[in-house]
Amino acid sequence: MTDRYAVIGNPIGHTKSPFIHGSFAQATGQDIEYGAIEGSLERFADDVHAFRKAGGLGLNVTAPFKLQALALATERLERAELAGATNALKFEGDRILADNFDGVGLTRDIQSNLGFALKGARMLVLGSGGAVRGALLPFLAQQPAKLVLANRTLPKAVDLAAQFAAHGPVHACAYADLAGERFDIVINGTSASLKAELPPVPAETFQNARLAYELAYGKGLTPFLRLAQNAGVPKLADGVGMLVEQAAEAFLWWRGVRPDTRPVIERMTIPLA
After folding, report:
1. At what angle do helices 240-255 and 17-28 cross, to 10 degrees?
2. CA-CA distance, 131 to 190, in Å (whole number)?
3. CB neighbours of 140 closer than 8 A, spacing ≥ 6?
4. CA–CA separation, 52 and 69 (whole Å)
5. Could you list the pLDDT tens digit for every one of the 273 residues in the chain?
6. Nearest Cα to 13, choosing from 50, 38, 39?
7. 129-133 contacts, C-beta under 8 A, 24 or more apart
8. Which residues are catalytic?
9. Cys-Cys with 8: which of 23, 37, 155, 162 at CB 3.0–4.6 Å?
10. At residue 128, what are phi and psi to the nearest 5 degrees?
11. Are strands 88-92 and 32-38 parallel, antiparallel or unpaired?
């Protein structure tokens, strides 16, 4: 019997998840069906329960439902609890388990695929939204020398840093306070690139950076990446690797086998130009 999984979001027409998980299933010999659900903004819980009732075993969750999905869970794993959001649900009888693989996928992409060690690195993360929240625990587990959160609304960054302070050296600052600071890795976790805008990060922040990473994917050379390129950063990357790696973690959680991600990443990668 074919097992059913899906991704739920609104809108959902742009999703690459069915292609990714279909590729994983074919490569690993797993008998699954993976679809896409455009969830109702008013009846998200009803949509989830209907999918479960129809035999669904797991859901990937994307915007704007990551907070609602966490609230719906009966059991929350530590990453989801600390992030305050979930991007994956697993259904086992009456149990709804929630985890968050965004940060695990991002960390794996940076270290395993791009070859940049986070241990001892000076890291700057722009933004304080759900994806950033999900990344902090996996980042800090790699023992960076310093992790700085910069945000337009400083109190949000301060609160977020305080939540994770027990897990490593995380600090918060306003964009204006970045002047004179130097980092090895700069990550854009804001929504600016979705609107072709540039977060207010000083160009000098990139002076010693070895990697500039854009969480958005498929946008080409975004204003953030262009600024980094003009500042001489040798390696630019977007979030396609993170997308595929977090999907692989969910696939492993659901199916007990971890697929090879590299062929899928290669097929989905768009030149940054």
Report:
1. 50
2. 9
3. 147, 164, 167, 168, 169, 170
4. 13
5. 899 999 999 999 989 999 999 999 999 999 999 999 999 999 999 999 999 999 999 999 998 999 999 999 999 999 999 889 899 999 999 999 999 999 999 999 999 999 999 999 999 999 988 789 889 999 999 999 999 999 999 999 999 999 999 999 999 999 999 988 999 999 999 988 888 889 999 999 999 999 999 999 989 999 999 999 999 999 999 999 999 999 999 999 999 999 999 999 999 998 886
6. 38
7. 129/189, 129/190, 129/191, 130/63, 130/66, 130/67, 130/83, 130/84, 130/85, 130/102, 131/102, 131/106, 131/189, 131/215, 132/160, 132/189, 133/82, 133/83, 133/84, 133/85, 133/160
8. 66
9. 37
10. -145, 25
11. unpaired
Tokens of 146: 């310093």
Give the residue ranges of DSSP H helices in the chain: 17-28, 44-53, 66-72, 78-83, 102-108, 130-141, 154-164, 223-230, 240-255, 262-268
Q: Which residue has the tokens 């722009």?
A: 126
Q: Rounded to whole angstroms, how far apart are CA atoms 250 and 257? A: 10
To 10 degrees, what angle do helices 130-141 and 154-164 make?
40
Tokens of 228: 């980094």
